[in-house]
Design a protein that fits this description.
The complex is a heterodimer. Chain A has 2 domains: 45 residues; 138 residues, Immunoglobulin-like (Sandwich), CATH 2.60.40.1240. In chain A, a hairpin with a 5-residue loop joins strand 5 and strand 6. Chain A has 5 helices and 9 strands, in the order H-E-E-E-E-H-E-E-H-H-E-H-E-E. By secondary structure, chain A is of the alpha+beta class. Chain B is an alpha+beta fold. Chain B has one domain: Immunoglobulin-like (Sandwich). In chain B, 17% of the residues lie in helices and 45% in strands. In chain B, strand 6 and strand 7 form a beta hairpin. Classes of the chains: A alpha+beta, B alpha+beta. At the A-B interface, strand 6 and strand 7 of A face loops of B.
Protein backbone atom coordinates (compact mmCIF):
# COMPACT_ATOMS: atom_id res chain seq x y z
CA UNK A 1 0.00 0.00 0.00
CA UNK A 2 1.42 3.38 -1.00
CA UNK A 3 1.85 6.25 1.44
CA UNK A 4 -0.98 8.18 -0.27
CA UNK A 5 -3.33 5.21 0.14
CA UNK A 6 -2.44 4.89 3.85
CA UNK A 7 -3.15 8.59 4.38
CA UNK A 8 -6.50 8.33 2.54
CA UNK A 9 -7.47 5.31 4.63
CA UNK A 10 -6.60 7.12 7.88
CA UNK A 11 -8.63 10.15 6.76
CA UNK A 12 -11.64 7.95 5.99
CA UNK A 13 -11.30 6.29 9.40
CA UNK A 14 -11.22 9.71 11.14
CA UNK A 15 -14.31 10.80 9.20
CA UNK A 16 -16.21 7.65 10.18
CA UNK A 17 -15.25 8.07 13.84
CA UNK A 18 -16.33 11.72 13.72
CA UNK A 19 -19.66 10.73 12.15
CA UNK A 20 -20.21 8.13 14.87
CA UNK A 21 -19.65 10.67 17.65
CA UNK A 22 -21.67 13.32 15.84
CA UNK A 23 -24.71 11.02 15.61
CA UNK A 24 -25.80 11.22 19.29
CA UNK A 25 -25.20 14.98 19.29
CA UNK A 26 -27.33 15.37 16.15
CA UNK A 27 -30.06 13.16 17.63
CA UNK A 28 -30.21 15.16 20.86
CA UNK A 29 -30.21 18.44 18.92
CA UNK A 30 -33.04 17.20 16.67
CA UNK A 31 -35.10 16.07 19.68
CA UNK A 32 -34.52 19.42 21.39
CA UNK A 33 -35.57 21.35 18.28
CA UNK A 34 -38.67 19.21 17.66
CA UNK A 35 -39.76 19.15 21.28
CA UNK A 36 -38.98 22.74 22.22
CA UNK A 37 -42.52 24.02 21.69
CA UNK A 38 -44.08 21.08 23.53
CA UNK A 39 -41.64 21.47 26.43
CA UNK A 40 -42.34 25.21 26.63
CA UNK A 41 -46.11 24.62 26.64
CA UNK A 42 -45.75 21.98 29.36
CA UNK A 43 -43.58 24.37 31.44
CA UNK A 44 -46.13 27.17 31.15
CA UNK A 45 -49.10 24.88 31.93
CA UNK A 46 -47.66 23.06 34.98
CA UNK A 47 -47.78 23.93 38.66
CA UNK A 48 -44.21 23.08 39.56
CA UNK A 49 -42.97 25.56 42.17
CA UNK A 50 -45.23 26.29 45.15
CA UNK A 51 -44.74 29.61 46.87
CA UNK A 52 -45.86 29.10 50.49
CA UNK A 53 -47.83 32.04 51.90
CA UNK A 54 -49.29 32.57 55.38
CA UNK A 55 -53.06 32.14 55.31
CA UNK A 56 -53.71 35.71 56.42
CA UNK A 57 -51.00 37.26 54.25
CA UNK A 58 -51.03 38.75 50.76
CA UNK A 59 -48.74 37.58 47.94
CA UNK A 60 -48.08 38.68 44.34
CA UNK A 61 -48.80 36.37 41.38
CA UNK A 62 -49.31 37.08 37.69
CA UNK A 63 -49.65 40.85 38.00
CA UNK A 64 -51.90 40.94 41.08
CA UNK A 65 -51.68 40.78 44.87
CA UNK A 66 -53.74 37.87 46.21
CA UNK A 67 -55.30 37.51 49.62
CA UNK A 68 -57.61 34.90 51.15
CA UNK A 69 -60.60 36.71 52.63
CA UNK A 70 -62.24 33.61 54.08
CA UNK A 71 -62.68 29.86 53.74
CA UNK A 72 -65.99 28.90 55.33
CA UNK A 73 -67.98 25.76 55.89
CA UNK A 74 -71.35 26.53 54.31
CA UNK A 75 -73.20 23.27 54.90
CA UNK A 76 -72.83 19.64 55.94
CA UNK A 77 -74.53 16.89 53.98
CA UNK A 78 -75.68 13.63 55.55
CA UNK A 79 -73.14 11.63 53.53
CA UNK A 80 -70.19 13.39 55.22
CA UNK A 81 -69.65 16.00 52.53
CA UNK A 82 -68.73 19.53 53.55
CA UNK A 83 -69.77 22.38 51.29
CA UNK A 84 -67.09 25.06 51.52
CA UNK A 85 -66.94 28.59 50.19
CA UNK A 86 -63.65 30.33 49.47
CA UNK A 87 -63.46 34.10 49.05
CA UNK A 88 -60.36 35.73 47.59
CA UNK A 89 -59.37 39.30 46.85
CA UNK A 90 -57.09 40.21 43.96
CA UNK A 91 -55.61 43.71 43.60
CA UNK A 92 -54.52 44.13 40.00
CA UNK A 93 -51.05 45.65 39.44
CA UNK A 94 -50.31 44.58 35.85
CA UNK A 95 -53.45 43.80 33.79
CA UNK A 96 -51.72 41.97 30.91
CA UNK A 97 -50.40 38.85 32.73
CA UNK A 98 -53.38 38.92 35.09
CA UNK A 99 -55.93 38.49 32.28
CA UNK A 100 -54.31 35.34 30.86
CA UNK A 101 -56.57 32.29 31.16
CA UNK A 102 -57.04 29.67 32.44
CA UNK A 103 -56.77 30.13 36.18
CA UNK A 104 -56.85 27.25 38.64
CA UNK A 105 -58.01 27.61 42.22
CA UNK A 106 -58.11 24.51 44.39
CA UNK A 107 -58.06 23.23 47.94
CA UNK A 108 -55.18 20.82 48.58
CA UNK A 109 -54.18 18.67 51.53
CA UNK A 110 -50.78 17.37 52.58
CA UNK A 111 -51.26 14.00 50.86
CA UNK A 112 -51.54 15.51 47.38
CA UNK A 113 -55.33 15.40 47.08
CA UNK A 114 -56.88 18.41 45.33
CA UNK A 115 -60.47 19.56 45.28
CA UNK A 116 -61.48 21.72 42.33
CA UNK A 117 -64.26 24.33 42.42
CA UNK A 118 -67.77 23.11 41.85
CA UNK A 119 -71.17 24.65 41.23
CA UNK A 120 -72.93 25.56 44.44
CA UNK A 121 -76.73 25.41 44.53
CA UNK A 122 -78.34 28.82 45.27
CA UNK A 123 -80.05 27.32 48.35
CA UNK A 124 -76.65 26.57 49.83
CA UNK A 125 -75.19 29.98 48.94
CA UNK A 126 -78.07 31.76 50.65
CA UNK A 127 -77.12 30.17 53.98
CA UNK A 128 -74.41 32.81 54.21
CA UNK A 129 -75.99 36.23 54.76
CA UNK A 130 -72.84 37.96 53.50
CA UNK A 131 -73.15 36.14 50.15
CA UNK A 132 -76.75 37.00 49.37
CA UNK A 133 -75.95 40.27 47.58
CA UNK A 134 -72.33 39.51 46.77
CA UNK A 135 -70.95 40.59 43.41
CA UNK A 136 -68.06 38.13 43.60
CA UNK A 137 -67.31 36.22 40.41
CA UNK A 138 -65.58 32.91 39.96
CA UNK A 139 -61.95 33.07 38.84
CA UNK A 140 -62.40 32.63 35.06
CA UNK A 141 -65.01 35.38 34.54
CA UNK A 142 -63.10 37.67 36.92
CA UNK A 143 -59.95 37.41 34.80
CA UNK A 144 -61.88 37.58 31.54
CA UNK A 145 -63.44 40.90 32.61
CA UNK A 146 -60.00 42.43 31.88
CA UNK A 147 -59.80 44.73 34.91
CA UNK A 148 -57.54 47.77 34.86
CA UNK A 149 -54.54 48.37 37.11
CA UNK A 150 -55.63 49.22 40.64
CA UNK A 151 -58.93 47.31 40.43
CA UNK A 152 -59.79 45.18 43.45
CA UNK A 153 -61.68 42.01 42.50
CA UNK A 154 -63.75 39.81 44.77
CA UNK A 155 -63.48 36.17 43.69
CA UNK A 156 -65.49 33.31 45.20
CA UNK A 157 -65.32 29.57 44.54
CA UNK A 158 -67.23 26.71 46.15
CA UNK A 159 -66.03 23.20 46.91
CA UNK A 160 -67.28 19.80 48.02
CA UNK A 161 -64.88 17.86 50.22
CA UNK A 162 -64.90 15.32 53.07
CA UNK A 163 -65.73 16.73 56.50
CA UNK A 164 -62.44 15.52 57.95
CA UNK A 165 -60.37 17.17 55.22
CA UNK A 166 -61.83 20.67 55.61
CA UNK A 167 -59.68 21.71 58.58
CA UNK A 168 -56.46 20.64 56.90
CA UNK A 169 -56.70 21.98 53.37
CA UNK A 170 -54.57 24.78 51.96
CA UNK A 171 -55.71 27.20 49.26
CA UNK A 172 -53.88 26.91 45.95
CA UNK A 173 -53.96 29.75 43.40
CA UNK A 174 -52.41 29.17 39.98
CA UNK A 175 -52.64 31.55 37.03
CA UNK A 176 -51.45 31.20 33.46
CA UNK A 177 -49.38 34.37 33.81
CA UNK A 178 -47.53 32.99 36.84
CA UNK A 179 -46.90 29.33 35.99
CA UNK A 180 -44.90 27.25 36.71
CA UNK A 181 -44.99 29.17 40.04
CA UNK A 182 -48.16 29.15 42.12
CA UNK A 183 -49.34 30.34 45.54
CA UNK A 184 -50.15 27.99 48.39
CA UNK A 185 -51.89 29.70 51.30
CA UNK A 186 -51.13 27.31 54.16
CA UNK A 187 -53.75 26.84 56.91
CA UNK A 188 -51.17 25.85 59.49
CA UNK A 189 -49.03 28.97 59.16
CA UNK B 1 -17.92 -15.91 -0.56
CA UNK B 2 -17.54 -12.47 1.03
CA UNK B 3 -19.84 -10.98 -1.62
CA UNK B 4 -22.47 -13.63 -0.83
CA UNK B 5 -22.24 -12.89 2.91
CA UNK B 6 -22.67 -9.15 2.22
CA UNK B 7 -25.71 -9.90 0.06
CA UNK B 8 -27.25 -12.07 2.80
CA UNK B 9 -26.57 -9.36 5.41
CA UNK B 10 -28.27 -6.73 3.22
CA UNK B 11 -31.25 -9.02 2.66
CA UNK B 12 -31.50 -9.73 6.41
CA UNK B 13 -31.34 -5.99 7.20
CA UNK B 14 -34.02 -5.23 4.60
CA UNK B 15 -36.22 -8.00 6.02
CA UNK B 16 -35.74 -6.64 9.53
CA UNK B 17 -36.62 -3.10 8.43
CA UNK B 18 -39.73 -4.35 6.63
CA UNK B 19 -40.78 -6.28 9.76
CA UNK B 20 -40.26 -3.19 11.93
CA UNK B 21 -42.23 -1.04 9.50
CA UNK B 22 -45.13 -3.48 9.40
CA UNK B 23 -45.25 -4.03 13.16
CA UNK B 24 -44.93 -0.36 14.18
CA UNK B 25 -48.26 0.81 15.62
CA UNK B 26 -49.88 3.87 14.05
CA UNK B 27 -49.96 7.32 15.62
CA UNK B 28 -53.56 6.91 16.82
CA UNK B 29 -52.63 3.65 18.56
CA UNK B 30 -49.47 5.06 20.16
CA UNK B 31 -51.30 8.11 21.52
CA UNK B 32 -54.55 6.26 22.29
CA UNK B 33 -56.06 5.34 25.65
CA UNK B 34 -53.98 3.44 28.20
CA UNK B 35 -56.12 0.46 29.21
CA UNK B 36 -56.56 -0.54 32.85
CA UNK B 37 -58.46 -3.80 32.63
CA UNK B 38 -60.36 -5.89 35.16
CA UNK B 39 -63.46 -7.93 35.90
CA UNK B 40 -66.66 -7.10 37.79
CA UNK B 41 -65.98 -6.93 41.53
CA UNK B 42 -62.35 -5.87 41.08
CA UNK B 43 -61.15 -2.35 41.85
CA UNK B 44 -59.49 -1.02 38.72
CA UNK B 45 -57.01 1.81 39.28
CA UNK B 46 -56.89 4.37 36.46
CA UNK B 47 -54.68 7.49 36.48
CA UNK B 48 -57.23 9.81 38.06
CA UNK B 49 -59.91 7.49 39.49
CA UNK B 50 -60.65 3.94 40.60
CA UNK B 51 -63.63 1.98 39.29
CA UNK B 52 -65.37 -0.99 40.90
CA UNK B 53 -68.27 -2.52 38.99
CA UNK B 54 -70.81 -4.21 41.24
CA UNK B 55 -73.25 -5.63 38.73
CA UNK B 56 -74.87 -5.45 35.31
CA UNK B 57 -78.62 -5.61 34.84
CA UNK B 58 -80.32 -6.02 31.44
CA UNK B 59 -83.91 -4.80 31.34
CA UNK B 60 -86.75 -4.42 28.85
CA UNK B 61 -87.91 -1.18 30.42
CA UNK B 62 -86.56 1.24 33.02
CA UNK B 63 -88.40 3.45 35.43
CA UNK B 64 -87.10 6.47 37.38
CA UNK B 65 -88.17 9.74 38.93
CA UNK B 66 -86.68 13.03 37.72
CA UNK B 67 -87.68 16.69 37.82
CA UNK B 68 -90.64 15.78 40.06
CA UNK B 69 -92.10 13.34 37.50
CA UNK B 70 -92.08 9.59 36.99
CA UNK B 71 -90.60 8.35 33.74
CA UNK B 72 -90.76 4.93 32.12
CA UNK B 73 -88.62 4.27 29.06
CA UNK B 74 -89.00 1.33 26.74
CA UNK B 75 -86.64 0.28 23.95
CA UNK B 76 -86.62 -1.96 20.90
CA UNK B 77 -83.37 -3.45 22.25
CA UNK B 78 -82.31 -3.80 25.87
CA UNK B 79 -81.34 -1.41 28.63
CA UNK B 80 -77.95 -2.29 30.12
CA UNK B 81 -77.55 -0.72 33.55
CA UNK B 82 -74.15 -0.96 35.25
CA UNK B 83 -73.98 -0.33 39.00
CA UNK B 84 -70.48 0.89 39.89
CA UNK B 85 -68.47 2.77 42.46
CA UNK B 86 -66.03 5.52 41.47
CA UNK B 87 -63.39 7.25 43.55
CA UNK B 88 -61.38 10.25 42.37
CA UNK B 89 -57.66 10.39 43.11
CA UNK B 90 -55.81 12.61 43.54
CA UNK B 91 -57.96 15.38 42.02
CA UNK B 92 -61.67 16.02 41.38
CA UNK B 93 -62.77 14.41 38.11
CA UNK B 94 -65.78 14.14 35.83
CA UNK B 95 -66.53 11.02 33.83
CA UNK B 96 -66.61 12.24 30.24
CA UNK B 97 -66.44 8.87 28.50
CA UNK B 98 -68.62 5.84 29.19
CA UNK B 99 -68.86 3.31 26.36
CA UNK B 100 -70.19 -0.20 25.90
CA UNK B 101 -68.03 -2.23 23.47
CA UNK B 102 -69.83 -5.32 22.25
CA UNK B 103 -68.08 -8.58 21.33
CA UNK B 104 -68.63 -7.65 17.66
CA UNK B 105 -66.63 -4.46 18.23
CA UNK B 106 -69.49 -1.96 18.10
CA UNK B 107 -69.29 0.91 20.57
CA UNK B 108 -72.31 2.45 22.24
CA UNK B 109 -72.22 5.68 24.23
CA UNK B 110 -74.14 6.01 27.49
CA UNK B 111 -77.77 6.80 26.76
CA UNK B 112 -78.94 10.40 26.66
CA UNK B 113 -82.55 9.24 27.10
CA UNK B 114 -82.21 8.94 30.87
CA UNK B 115 -81.10 12.52 31.61
CA UNK B 116 -82.04 13.43 35.16
CA UNK B 117 -82.11 9.81 36.40
CA UNK B 118 -80.75 9.41 39.95
CA UNK B 119 -77.04 8.89 40.58
CA UNK B 120 -75.89 8.89 36.97
CA UNK B 121 -72.10 8.67 37.24
CA UNK B 122 -71.70 10.67 34.02
CA UNK B 123 -73.73 13.58 35.36
CA UNK B 124 -71.76 14.89 38.31
CA UNK B 125 -68.25 15.39 39.59
CA UNK B 126 -66.38 12.86 41.71
CA UNK B 127 -64.40 14.36 44.59
CA UNK B 128 -61.34 12.84 46.34
CA UNK B 129 -62.32 11.11 49.57
CA UNK B 130 -66.01 11.03 48.55
CA UNK B 131 -66.55 7.81 46.59
CA UNK B 132 -69.67 7.84 44.45
CA UNK B 133 -71.88 4.80 43.92
CA UNK B 134 -74.15 5.15 40.92
CA UNK B 135 -75.20 3.86 37.55
CA UNK B 136 -74.23 3.96 33.89
CA UNK B 137 -77.07 3.32 31.45
CA UNK B 138 -76.75 2.04 27.87
CA UNK B 139 -79.39 1.26 25.26
CA UNK B 140 -78.21 -1.72 23.22
CA UNK B 141 -79.45 -3.92 20.38
CA UNK B 142 -80.37 -7.34 21.81
CA UNK B 143 -77.51 -9.16 20.07
CA UNK B 144 -74.86 -6.69 21.37
CA UNK B 145 -75.52 -7.02 25.08
CA UNK B 146 -73.97 -10.36 26.03
CA UNK B 147 -70.27 -10.47 26.92
CA UNK B 148 -69.49 -6.81 26.28
CA UNK B 149 -66.85 -4.54 27.81
CA UNK B 150 -67.47 -1.33 29.73
CA UNK B 151 -64.98 1.48 28.90
CA UNK B 152 -64.77 4.41 31.34
CA UNK B 153 -62.52 7.47 31.09
CA UNK B 154 -62.43 11.09 32.16
CA UNK B 155 -62.26 12.34 28.57
CA UNK B 156 -64.75 11.36 25.90
CA UNK B 157 -61.89 10.40 23.57
CA UNK B 158 -58.95 9.70 25.91
CA UNK B 159 -55.48 10.30 24.47
CA UNK B 160 -52.51 9.07 26.48
CA UNK B 161 -54.81 8.77 29.48
CA UNK B 162 -56.24 5.82 31.38
CA UNK B 163 -59.37 4.03 30.29
CA UNK B 164 -60.83 1.54 32.77
CA UNK B 165 -62.08 -1.56 30.95
CA UNK B 166 -64.37 -4.08 32.60
CA UNK B 167 -65.11 -7.26 30.65
CA UNK B 168 -68.34 -9.09 31.41
CA UNK B 169 -68.81 -12.83 30.92
CA UNK B 170 -71.69 -13.74 28.60
CA UNK B 171 -73.80 -14.90 31.55
CA UNK B 172 -72.73 -12.14 33.99
CA UNK B 173 -75.86 -10.01 33.68
CA UNK B 174 -78.94 -10.12 35.85
CA UNK B 175 -82.16 -9.58 33.94
CA UNK B 176 -85.36 -7.72 34.70
CA UNK B 177 -88.55 -6.84 32.90
CA UNK B 178 -88.97 -3.38 34.47
CA UNK B 179 -85.99 -1.98 36.37
CA UNK B 180 -86.51 0.78 38.94
CA UNK B 181 -83.38 2.99 38.73
CA UNK B 182 -84.23 4.84 41.95
CA UNK B 183 -84.20 1.61 43.92
CA UNK B 184 -81.11 0.30 42.15
CA UNK B 185 -78.97 3.35 42.84
CA UNK B 186 -80.00 3.63 46.48
CA UNK B 187 -80.04 -0.04 47.50
Amino acid sequence: MSKAQVQASARAMRLRRFSLWALPVALIAALALRGRETATNWWRASDLFPQPVRFDASAPLAGADWRVVSLQRVAERPDGTTVALLELEATVRDPAPFALLPCRIALADGTGQRWLPTFLAPTEVSRLPSRRNSQAKTCGPALASKPEAGAVLAIAESFLLPRAAFAQVDVVVSLAGGRPHYLRFARGS
Amino acid sequence: MRLLLQFIAILAAAGMLLGMQRSTPGYAEITGPLPASGRPGETIPARSFTLTVEKLVLAERIRYRAYGRDFERSTTGLWAVVVARLEARPESVSIGGALWRSTAGFRFEASQRVAGAPRLLTAGRIEPGLPARGILVFELPRDQAAGGTLLVSTARWPRLDSQARVSFAADAAESADVLDLNGLANE
